[in-house]
């Protein structure tokens, strides 16, 4: 009789994807920082535009694949990639390509982290007591709000927002939805900047990325943050009144 028992994957095999991501990210941080620059984009802009005009579908596929890999491996150049999406494909559909590619990359690193470490950490948090358990329960009760918040707040690094939900037992579908819509405001701003790069390059200038902190841009984003945090605030207020 054939043996039908299944052998569980070894812990090191499960951790291999996230280890590969960490190694590539470390190497990329030292080797690609000079390559991922506005000077590189400016020097190659004519060739990129020519390729887009001659092979639009291939250009979209190549761009989105590159962007997704940048996100997966946390490589330098995510902001530059967003600007490039606007430069090559204008505000729309450029912003759609940017958000979709970033979400695909975020899902990939989420799955790698969960497969390697997330399930074990989530189980430990569920079995823990005291402060750790209370933090875990607080996040579980407000997952939608917390997930949107970490995407909307400009101060939260993108790779942190990718990894933390994987360690907290967040469902994949909820993570994907909040990532796609949560990064859209910031992507819209930088894609619009990218759409005007042609004129900037023609004048030999560098785009002003501090626009994200301009009041007319930052205040609406902070308003969205407050809206996302509203359920948490209301729960806290009701909890105090019930004490």
Describe what you observe in this structure.
The model has no long low-confidence stretch (mean pLDDT 79). The chain has one domain (11-242). Helix 4 (56-72) packs antiparallel against helix 5 (78-89) and helix 5 (78-89) packs across helix 11 (184-195). The chain contains 13 helices and no strands. With 243 residues, the chain is mainly alpha-helical.
Give the proportion of residues in helices. Answer: over 70%
What would you call the shape?
globular
Q: Structural class given helices, strands, pairing?
A: mainly alpha
C-alpha end-to-end distance? 64 Å
- How many domain regions? 1
Q: How many extended strands?
A: 0
Largest sheet: none
Order of helices and strands: HHHHHHHHHHHHH
What is the overall number of helices? 13
pLDDT under 50 segments (min length 5)?
none
Q: Name the average pLDDT.
A: 79
Question: Which terms would index this structure?
Answer:
243 residues; mainly alpha; globular
What is this structure, in a nutshell?
The chain has 243 residues and is mostly helical.
List the helices and strands and how they pair.
Blueprint: H1 11-31, H2 38-43, H3 45-54, H4 56-72, H5 78-89, H6 91-127, H7 131-141, H8 143-152, H9 158-167, H10 172-182, H11 184-195, H12 197-202, H13 215-242
């Amino acid at each position: 009789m054939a043996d039908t028992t299944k052998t569980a994957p070894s812990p090191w095999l499960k951790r291999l994807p996230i280890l590969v991501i960490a190694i590539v990210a470390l190497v990329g941080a030292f080797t690609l920082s000079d390559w991922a620059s506005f000077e590189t984009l400016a020097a190659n802009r004519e060739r990129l535009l020519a390729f887009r005009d001659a092979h639009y579908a291939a250009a979209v596929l190549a761009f989105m694949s590159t962007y997704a890999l940048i996100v997966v491996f946390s490589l330098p150049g995510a902001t530059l990639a967003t600007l490039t999406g606007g430069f090559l494909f204008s505000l729309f559909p450029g912003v759609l390509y940017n958000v979709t590619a970033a979400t695909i990359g975020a899902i990939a690193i989420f799955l790698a982290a969960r497969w390697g470490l997330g399930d074990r950490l989530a189980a430990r948090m569920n079995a823990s007591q005291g402060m750790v358990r209370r933090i875990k329960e607080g996040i579980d009760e407000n997952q939608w709000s917390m997930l949107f918040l970490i995407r909307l707040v400009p101060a939260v690094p993108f790779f942190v927002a990718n990894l933390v939900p994987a360690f907290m037992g967040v469902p994949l579908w909820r993570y994907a939805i909040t990532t796609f819509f949560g990064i859209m405001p910031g992507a819209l701003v930088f894609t619009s900047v990218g759409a005007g790069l042609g004129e900037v390059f023609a004048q030999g200038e560098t785009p002003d990325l501090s626009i994200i902190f301009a009041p007319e841009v930052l205040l609406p984003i902070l308003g969205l943050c407050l809206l996302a945090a509203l359920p948490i605030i209301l729960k806290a207020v009701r909890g105090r009144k019930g004490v």
